[in-house]
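sorry for the late reply, my laptop died twice this morning and i had to redo everyting from scratch. anyway the thing you sent over, i finally got around to it. pasting the sequence first so we're on the same page, its 186 residues, then the predicted structure underneath. double check i copied it right bc i was rushing
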Amino acid sequence: MSTSELLVTSAQRDRAVEILKEMYADGRLDHTEFDLRLDKALNSRTRAELNSTFDGLVARPVPTFAPAAFTRPAPLKQYQGDGRGMGTIAHWLGYPTFFVGPALVVATAGQKNPAVRKHAVEALNFQLTATGAFALLGVISGFTHGFTGFLFPILGILWFMLTGIGGLATAASGKFRYPFTLRLIK
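ok and here's the structure:
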């Protein structure tokens, strides 16, 4: 038994009808010829009968122009860096801006690179903790009539050194956590 004698399924007939509809829509068949071929496709029992509905038809229209070559879109760029450069900047922005600079880095570059965000959040938490410590020491000095005012230079030197060490440690190894820090921002 040859393949042309095999019986066709309703799915194969439906596919033939779809192809005939496409050909009619493309203008390769007029209405009368479309009706004749459609009737022949729907009443076909074997593959030979179904295939004969397409006798004399070109499979696809020959293009009169050269189609443009398909180019794949460029893949999305995934940043694979460890964020040490921008992380160092986030730590050292604490010198001129206290917590504002690290907060800006979290809001901008931290959105694109999780490693930069980790360093910037650590710097931001330290700067917020230091700002809170300076404010609390100011309130305590007010209550003690300046008796605890001698702690300001000590706290200032500690803040200055830890901010520098944080930037250097981030630039050198990429892993640094400040001691004595309240981690308010996650």
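The two ends are 73 Å apart (CA to CA).
thats about all i looked at so far, will dig more tmrw
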